[in-house]
Amino acid sequence: MSDHFIRDEQGRCHTIITMANIYEYGGFIFEFHNYCGPCKLKKNWEPAAREGMKFWKTIEAWCKLTKEQKEATRLSG
Q: In sequence order, which ranges of the chain are alpha helices (DSSP H)?
């Protein structure tokens, strides 16, 4: 998750925006949370109803990438 803090002229934080880290890899779009793990998404970025074995094999391969390689697959966050 990426957090963005919006501060006023005095430096006080008055808005916190949290965005999901969304990735595209191996033909899948997914959100990945460090505690909750992956969530397969549809093309409109809504959660998918199912996560089949092909998805989980792709996630297993993605998890083996380096931090830099994972960052290259990130769409938002």
A: 53-63, 67-72
C-alpha of 75 from chain center? 8
More confident residue, 5 or 29: 29
Please check the confidence at residue 3 and state whether its pLDDT lies above 60: no
CA–CA gap between residue 10 and residue 53 (Å, rounded): 51
Residues 6+ apart with CB under 8 A from 11: none
pLDDT digits (tens, 9 = 90+) for 33-51: 878 889 999 999 999 999 9
What are the sequence ranges of the domains in the chain?
Answer: 2-76
* C-alpha angle 33-7-4 in degrees, rounded to nearest 5: 15
Strand residues in the chain grouped as ranges (E): 2-7, 13-19, 22-25, 28-33, 37-41, 74-76
